[in-house]
Amino acid sequence: MFSKIGRYLYALPFGVFGILHFVNAGQMAGMVPIPGGVFWVYLTGLAMLAACASIVIEWKARLATILLGIMLLIFVLSIHLPAVVGGEMQSSMPNLLKDLALAGGAWFIAGQTDEEITDEI
Q: How far apart, in whole angstroms, are the C-alpha atoms of residue 63 and residue 115?
């Protein structure tokens, strides 16, 4: 029971984050370290919404959480770490630690997800 509730509580913020990526794409585009800022904001928002749905309905949840963890680690290394090194410690360190913890949680869920559960639906 607790693992199911935990998966839902883990997935829910990604649904919200995904929606916020669409609502605030123009503002977030400036944080993207590669060309095509708004496109990448939309793509990552879509990925977060897809991961949320996948975790909640337990369809391809293992794959979704592996990919989600990779995406979050990319955020840590390409957005938050350079900002911390560049002197934005107070504003960027909490986001670095948040995304690092969320990546670890995603991979933990991936390791706990039975293939049988994902194949049932």
A: 10
